[in-house]
Amino acid sequence: xxxxxxxxxxxxxxxxxxxxxxxxxxxxxxxxxxxxxxxxxxxxxxxxxxxxxxxxxxxxxxxxxxxxxxxxxxxxxxxxxxxxxxxxxxxxxxxxxxxxxxxxxxxxxxxxxxxxxxxxxxxxxxxxxxxxxxxxxxxxxxxxxxxxxxxxxxxxxxxxxxxxxxxxxxxxxxxxxxxxxxxxxxxxxxxxxxxxxxxxxxxxxxxxxxxxxxxxxxxxxxxxxxxxxxxxxxxxxxxxxxxxxxxxxxxxxxxxxxxxxxxxxxxxxxxxxxxxxxxxxxxxxxxxxxxxxxxxxxxxxxxxxxxxxxxxxxxxxxxxxxxxxxxxxxxxxxxxxxxxxxxxxxxxxxxxxxxxxxxxxxxxxxxxxxxxxxxxxxx
Length: 379
Known about the structure:
Largest sheet: 8 strands, mixed
Helix content: 25-40%
Radius of gyration: 23 Å
Strand order of the largest sheet: 4-3-2-1-5-6-7-8
Shape: elongated
Strand content: 15-25%
Structural class: alpha/beta
């Protein structure tokens, strides 16, 4: 195989080379296959050679100039300098999160390599402004527009000429290496993990939300759960890490609400970031996962729950139609339906079949082995 040179335009955030572990997994696999990978970080203004773990600084302005919003303009000029110095240098250029400055200089970005890929996150679609809505040539110049699910393209079609991007659309899930943790689990392990985590093994464990942000809509969920029949049969777990809430105000607020509605001693908050392994244990301990975000594109926690034999209750306002074509979970249209949905799950005679089916779907379509599909893109 011919050695390829690949540039990722993406933030470099410690402890990762890129901005996320799943992107790092792609990069490290490319290097393992003999390719050269570099990352240009527009904010830090350096080029990282990942193979050698060496950096080249492209900034040519005095550091004291980078004050207030001026840094955005200066970073833009540094980006232009980087592009001019590296035209036609790469076989592939991949954008992970399409920043506005990329859309302002489409020819320079496209000119960096022979092929241009743009990978879309949900924030690419949710965070709109004048530049994102009106400077579109970069997308039409790209060779591939990549997303983890077709629902993202459904939104993208609202902003771009569908006819000009239809053949560029490519759906590939990001590799989730930690999915390996779920492979040895069986449904019979739930009691074991409950005991290891100190959870009541004689109660139904319900995991409520993904994190501590307002987007999770804890208030609405807790208000309904406080009215559940036979509350003594349930125990609630709240993953609540929130790096934005450094003062812990929201944690205190939702904890007080949980004490009022659910009763002290009937729930557990996980306020800090926990390892993938510990989270896998909590998911394996849970029978039901309430995933009722205000907005989302596709959460890995859904797939984790599927692999952990944990049934999901989600909302019909979330764009999961393609996911729901394959899995069998409970979908509600209003928070008032939560408690009935919980009882429906626990009394479902086909629950065991559904849980096994959902696990097989995820292992087949969303497994970390999708790395092979990513590698084919660069051949």
